[in-house]
């Protein structure tokens, strides 16, 4: 008995699946290459900004510790003063009395310590608050002065330390 062999034509779904698989592989490779490129670019940018920084590595470490401690102390002091003021106001409300005076910084003072930090190699201040306290003694404004510059590697100085009232 002789069987006639007919060539089997590929099924349409097989060729579609094969091209879809190739496209998916190509997309995955492209995605991983893009991720690798972004990581390398960020690493290079970070390295260059640190190399060009006017601040040494150890001074930068000290600076970060200072800012962290300043934010923690500010948070503790703000919590303490706010609690004290709230207690006094509630006491006065229920006793129908007048509150005693509290020394609270003015809106202008709060705005000045909340402004963007600028680095000046002539005057070494570790934060806007540090700059405000030292210039206030000299009765100077803490606005930008000659030589002030925003240095990218010092971006942590302006990072929000107090995120919300629930963190307090």
UniProtKB/TrEMBL annotation:
Residue ranges of the TM segments: 29-52
Membrane topology: Multi-pass membrane protein
GO biological process: ATP export
Record carries keyword Transmembrane helix: yes
Keyword Transmembrane: yes
GO CC annotation terms, alphabetical: plasma membrane
PANTHER family associated with the record: CALCIUM HOMEOSTASIS MODULATOR PROTEIN (PTHR32261), CALCIUM HOMEOSTASIS MODULATOR PROTEIN 6 (PTHR32261:SF4)
Name used for this protein in its record: Calcium homeostasis modulator protein 6 isoform X2
Source species: Camelus ferus (Wild bactrian camel)
């Amino acid at each position: 008995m002789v069987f006639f062999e007919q060539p089997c034509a590929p099924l349409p779904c097989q060729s579609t699946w094969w091209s879809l698989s190739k496209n998916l592989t190509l997309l995955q490779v492209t995605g991983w290459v893009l991720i690798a490129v972004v990581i390398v670019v960020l690493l290079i940018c970070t390295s260059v900004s640190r190399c060009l920084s006017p601040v040494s590595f150890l001074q930068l470490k000290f600076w970060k510790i200072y800012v962290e401690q300043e934010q923690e102390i500010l948070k503790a002091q703000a919590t303490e003063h706010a609690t004290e003021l709230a207690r006094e106001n509630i006491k006065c409300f229920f006793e129908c009395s007048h509150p005693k005076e509290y020394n609270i910084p003015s809106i202008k003072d709060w705005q000045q310590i909340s402004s963007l930090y600028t680095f000046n190699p002539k005057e070494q201040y570790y934060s806007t608050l540090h700059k405000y306290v030292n210039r206030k003694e000299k009765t100077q404004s803490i606005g930008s002065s000659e030589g002030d510059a925003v240095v990218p590697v010092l971006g942590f100085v302006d990072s929000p330390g107090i995120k919300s009232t629930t963190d307090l």
